[in-house]
Amino acid sequence: MSQEQDAWEKFLSLCQKGFISCTFSDELTEVCGGDPNVASVVYYHNKDNALKWMRSKVPALKDKTPAFCARSDMPLLKTVLMSFPC
To answer: pTM surpassing 0.90?
Structure first.
């Protein structure tokens, strides 16, 4: 496992617990490129605003939306998500 993947797995383990309470998890997972792990991290940081955030332009993503990056540049999206404070 690469160092980046190991860091992602550790970060993910901190974020997954609350995702079970997400009432829109299927829609969020779909917007997150079908990746429930990314969806759980997005939900952890944004809670009820997760879908809105996924559809908003984010300067750290070069003014792309996270939804776009989930389909085209997942490594960048994961890097930005891991830079959020827990």
So the answer is: yes
